[in-house]
Amino acid sequence: MFNGSRLEELRLLNGLTRADLARELEVTEQAIWQFETGVTLPKMKNKIAMARFFQVEVDYFNAVDKNGSFSLSRIAFRNADLEAKKTIHIQMVYLEKMNQMIDYLENFVSIPNQIIYQLVDSIDQKLQQHESLEFIADHAREVLAVSVDNANLLYSLEKSGIYISERLINGNADAYSAWSRNGRPFIVLGLGKSAVRRNFDLAHELGHLLLHNQVDFEELSKEELEEKEKEANQFASYFLLPRKQFLMDFVNIVGKRVSNPDQYILLKKRFGVSIQALEYRAYKLGLLTPQQNSYFYRQISKKGYKAVEPLDLEIPLKKPSKIRSILDVILSNNLLTLSDIERNQRVSKNFISQLFSFDVKFFDKYLLQLDTFDNVIPLFSRKQ
């Protein structure tokens, strides 16, 4: 038995064309097509080569996957990528593989206080009551207990029940978000962003998850999609820079030199938000005139701040850690061994670390424990 769709998924997950994979496996491109579509079954040597290349078990290709956990209509991609079907397909595969692994791991841990679900319900009520977007953003910020400097934003979102990962995203997407069919929220971040731009991406995608969880993105026109993007951007601005605190700090830090980008550097440190996003919030609050706003952006271009701003290299970039924490609880408490996880999922530790974008050395201490205490017989069997 050979499930060709699993080969296709792995190929897409690694960003390979059929020609790319054919070169790696030393077969023809037509052979790859035949394997994926079930026209021809690969020989054992081909299956072994595939498994070695993708760092999975040989019998990985024998498994039959359940029905998809995601609907394309529930994934909030940025406008530029909605027409890039290949990019969307790749990200769908990525979400499916993450969700399958998380489904398995969550059988062995209890994750309390996942307040994202209560927050969604309360915001749905506030939307029905026609509360302002700024009020809703302030409410979300309060519920999630985000610090003034937004330094704990990623942690707060993960703690709330959102699964966050990072990976190289093809196309023009900075990030995207989705709800699975069984109600699990995801945010996938792109690579190569500064800490402050990552904060905005997180707040933007949170806006999609909270405001657009019932939206069918496939049914929207280009104009309607742009409106949803605008709404998520506005939510992010309100969420990251609450009015009362921002006004007070703006007066004390920026002062009257509102057109000088360098005056915003300390404010950037204060909120963990880019200089341009800070000025945008100030402009929308009427703290700059249109002329001052235009002069500000001329200075941004002149100083080269469109590419790299001051403090971009100094403010530390936070990385997702929820999956590692779950794995640590499971492995440290001997609920499963690393071999158990690899065997059940039919993948290697390298595959797992690449899927969730962390260093494979994370697993070293668990391998060491196994090597050191392999002569100890547990009194109680692990949960199967």
TrEMBL record:
It comes from the Bacteria. SMART domains: HTH_XRE. InterPro entries: Cro/C1-type_HTH, IrrE_HExxH, Lambda_DNA-bd_dom_sf, Rad_response_metalloprotease. Residues 7-61 form the HTH cro/C1-type domain. Transmembrane segments: none annotated. One of its GO terms (molecular function) is DNA binding. Pfam families: HTH_3, Peptidase_M78. Keywords: DNA-binding. Belongs to the short-chain fatty acyl-CoA assimilation regulator (ScfR) family. This is DNA-binding protein. It comes from Streptococcus suis 6407.
